[in-house]
Amino acid sequence: MLLSRVRGSLVAAVVADCIGAKFEFSRFVNIDKVLNAVKKLEQNRTTMKKKVAEGKKEKQGDVLSFTDDTAMARSIAASLIEHKDVNVRDIGARFAKEFEKEPSRGYGGSVITVLRALADQDLEDVFQPAREQFDGSGSYGNGGGMRIAPLGLFCHQLPLQELKEKTVSVTKLTHTHPYAIVGTLLESYAVHLALSLDNSKPLDTDNFLGQLLERLRPTEKEIYDQRRQMKSKEKNSGDESEEEGIEGLPYCNKVELIRDFLKRDVDSKEVRKKLGTKVTALDSIPTAVYCFLRGASQSIPGTEERGPVEQTIIYAISLGGDTDTVATMAAAISGAFYGLESVPQAWQESCEGVRDALLFGEKLTEIISAREVKS
Ligand code: R7I
Ligand code: MG
Ligand code: MG
Ligand code: MG
């Protein structure tokens, strides 16, 4: 059912961010440590339920907080629901307001400059602050990808061209580097594709990658070509700007590598080295796609008893590095395929923001369904 899958994506993304946050850039993470953390969380819920059943008062403690990843995804979801379309000015204003209200959610080191500038209601060009990042080359952090899932869901059954254009404009509010844009497109394409596939039979991972590449290849080429044209125009007009030296199609190459990884038993070290778990888009977003597919197809040691969404989240966090972000992006894809029922109740009850995600999911589904009826 559509509702379960839209909610599944949003809720899985929130819990992955909340559970992953504790491990972000901590030095020694592995499967056992992540498993211990989730088991503890599950035991706490069991203990709490017992107490409630015995008539004792429910304690509010032990709720894991979400980070900037969810804060920004929520802004996109709420804006889409209110405007029934992408309204970049409104999304930018919501980003700014959220940041002003709760600046300690763990935002990226440089994006905060943009978020402060976006608070200015009279800003003529909302993309200007983002364009000025990193001496005019724009950020290539993964902040575009970490928050884009609601848009991938919103665009269910809309033409790919629309998904592409809307994704690019939402990304450019904070991230204008082509690597950030292509990475965000990879994530929104993956969420959108996962939601569209028949989930009554096991996922065909090879087919998923094939379809994903079919979407990504022309897009990646187009984004780099546009950038080169823009830069050469700036050069001719005498603007000083560095050449970026983008060569080939690095995202497509990484997606090809995922295909190879799924055929053999790849260890975490190799995944970290070749796909990456960094704060940069190119070194984290393809990894999220891999985590989704790995959870869907291979048993991850110690997690055999668990469902694919759980496996994906646990595995993504166990890789270390930018744990909240890789996990939230992987979970958003996985939840869109497997649905809400595959996110354990205990996890849902332990994380801040789940109730809102359920509500957002319901409203987004209403919008998508109304559109279906019309056409
Ligand atoms: O991309 P962004 O929103 O950060 C998201 C990350 C996630 O892990 C969240 O969970 C949160 O922890 O932060 O924020 P940006 O500040 O735009 O980018 C993040 C970082 O990427 C920057 O602080 C830089 O370290 C790096 N980075 C760059 N470094 C050099 N040159 C991004 N773009 C560049 C660049 O062009
Ligand atoms: Mg974060
Ligand atoms: Mg952080
Ligand atoms: Mg992060």
Compute the number of helices.
Answer: 18
Mean pLDDT equals 95
How many strands, which pairing sense, and closed or not: the largest β-sheet?
A: none
Spatial shape:
globular
Strand runs, count: 0
Low-confidence residue ranges: none
Q: How many whole angstroms does the radius of gyration measure?
A: 20 Å
> Oligomerization state of this entry?
single chain
Q: Kindly report how far apart the N and C termini lie.
A: 19 Å
Strand portion = under 5%
Assign the CATH architecture: Orthogonal Bundle
Structural class: mainly alpha
Number of domains: 1
Q: Helix amount, in percent?
A: 55-70%
Bound molecules: inosine diphosphate ribose, magnesium ion
Under CATH, the topology can be stated as ADP-ribosylglycohydrolase fold
Encode the helix/strand succession as letters. Answer: HHHHHHHHHHHHHHHHHH
Q: Can you identify the CATH superfamily? A: ADP-ribosylation/Crystallin J1
User: Which CATH C-level class is it?
Assistant: Mainly Alpha
Cofactor: Mg(2+)
Enzyme class: hydrolase
Protein name: ADP-ribosylhydrolase ARH3
Subunit structure: Monomer.
